[in-house]
Amino acid sequence: LDADNYETDPCLKEIRRAENYSWMDIITIHKDKLPNYEEKIKTFYEEHLHLDDEIRYILDGSGYFDVRDKDDKWIRISMEKGDMITLPAGIYHRFTLDENNYVKAMRLFVGEPVWTAYNRPADDFPARKQYMKFLAEEAS
């Protein structure tokens, strides 16, 4: 994806159309740009899940998404400018900045955004159960 021209990027436009990402905003995570920076960073790093997919497109800077694999071990995913990730509903994850302490990301949603994070343990939610079923099916 062309992060420098995200406003007019035809590939991004097609992804948004195909996936029905009707809502978006941009967040800048930096101590001079994000109110309550220290508190937010701690919240992002707390292991949690969401009941909807989490879609992030890195417009500038870099950071890491950590996700749990089928054996409950961490996998670190390095994200940098131009990268997009979709974390499925029900997956435990966390986010942290790298040594640059800066990232600018587009947040995409189907419909209205839902910001609620459920810290671990949150295994009783249908989204978690559906995700675990998906993992089991993929393993077989």
UniProtKB/TrEMBL annotation:
EC number, as in UniProt: 1.13.11.54
GO cellular component, one term: nucleus
Subcellular location: Cell membrane; Nucleus
An example Gene Ontology biological process: L-methionine salvage from methylthioadenosine
Signal peptide: none
UniProt keyword annotations, A-Z: Amino-acid biosynthesis, Cytoplasm, Dioxygenase, Iron, Metal-binding, Methionine biosynthesis, Nickel, Nucleus, Oxidoreductase
Cofactor annotation: Fe(2+); Ni(2+)
Molecular function, one GO term: acireductone dioxygenase [iron(II)-requiring] activity
HAMAP family referenced in this protein's UniProt entry, alphabetically: Salvage_MtnD_euk
Topology within the bilayer: Peripheral membrane protein
CDD domains named in the record: cupin_ARD
Source organism per UniProt: Pandion haliaetus
Swiss-Prot/TrEMBL catalytic activity: 1,2-dihydroxy-5-(methylsulfanyl)pent-1-en-3-one + O2 = 4-methylsulfanyl-2-oxobutanoate + formate + 2 H(+)
Chief place of localization: membrane
Name of the protein: acireductone dioxygenase (Fe(2+)-requiring)
